[in-house]
Design a protein that fits this description.
five-stranded mixed β-sheet
Length: 143
């Protein structure tokens, strides 16, 4: 069984998280410039077995797709082209940045450390993946 990988896709950089090999828990892996995402993923998937990529789906408070889908969609289409045998799914990412900041505060991170946007992106990817692991969507996919 391969790992699951998640991406908090951003215009400048992407936070990446991955599960353990048993798919029990997600942990932050890296933050990479968006332009280097495919190269990073090719290198990572050459070394580790990955079965699925979970991408944060940005929605507004009313549930509509966010304006940022304008630049996310072409990036994800490129991922699907570069990794045709890997399933790529979207999963709601509402509040992940807020939860990431809250988690940083709760863990005792200093204010200057919390301003590191790369750390926030990586933590948001971790939250997306942990939420996905607990979701009905994932549980139905493994039955």
């Amino acid at each position: 069984m391969g790992r699951l990988l998640s991406i908090d896709y951003g215009r400048r950089r992407c936070g990446i998280a991955v599960t353990d090999s048993l798919r029990i828990v997600a942990t932050g892996l890296a933050t990479v410039p968006t332009a280097d995402l495919v190269t990073f993923l090719k290198k990572y998937t050459a070394a580790e077995s990955v079965d699925m990529i979970v991408v944060g789906l940005p929605r507004t408070m009313s549930g509509e797709l966010s304006e940022s889908m304008r630049y996310i969609t072409p990036g994800i289409n490129r991922l699907r082209k570069e990794f045709p045998d890997m399933e790529v799914v979207f999963f709601d990412e509402r509040f992940t940045s807020v939860l990431a900041h809250r988690g940083m505060i709760d863990s005792g991170m200093k204010k200057m450390q919390r301003r590191d946007k790369a750390a926030v992106d990586e933590m948001a990817a971790t939250i997306i993946l942990n939420d996905y692991l607990q979701s009905k969507q994932y549980l139905q996919s493994i039955k």
